[in-house]
Amino acid sequence: MPDPFDIDGLGLDPASEVVRLLRRYPDIEPRAYRDGEYLIREAEESQEIFIVLLGALVVEQASLVPGGMPAMLAGLTADPEAVAIVGEMAYLGSQRRAASVKSSGRSHALCLRPDHVDGILDGFPGLTRVICRQFSRRLQDTDRTLRGLQARFALNPQRRMAGAGEQLFARGGPARELFQLVAGSVRVERDGAAAVLTPETLPMGLLEPEAFLRGAAHRSTATVEDLAFLAVIAEADRAAVVRCFPELVLEILAQSDHD
Length: 259
Hints:
By secondary structure, this protein is of the alpha+beta class.
């Protein structure tokens, strides 16, 4: 468990935005993390956002190979002159964490709730710029992921950002597009039951691929829960999807044999 610490011990400029933020929100929690201690764990549904004041962090994802070593995605450092912010996607709503963040050595951070970020956007331009840079970096990462799909599989997906409440498809409607969820969450309703799905809980991030591959009608309704980044694959690329995801196609065919 992280330890509390005295913010005055870091020697922050009393006129800095961080100090002014703490005066406005005294419930913000200062936390000191030991080497290897996690701020965020992949797949959890926590909504904390962290302003890292001092130290170094490692961002990693679980290996795709069972029992394999986690993949390091990035390293971050912070000091009182250049703070870092992690976990900012929690501001957009309740979503599963896409990666883990742990301390490398000892680090000091402030633990914020999403409503604290409202205050930052209202009156702290320097910290707002840090958050905007983080969002921009996330969009760039998404763009690279989609470009990689296009280059590797000769697919031509459209890149799309969908807002909360946007319906992607409805039950009974034709499956003329295949949606691959890259980031965010989608509510899927079927036969009176509903579930909120993320890229980690979907087969390769694909939403109802069997309807698309069979040229059939959708059996469920999918609505964006908070915010979602998507790859949208057109009907004309159905054969390319089969080439890209042969194991998934075989699984769908095996299921149809049992239906």
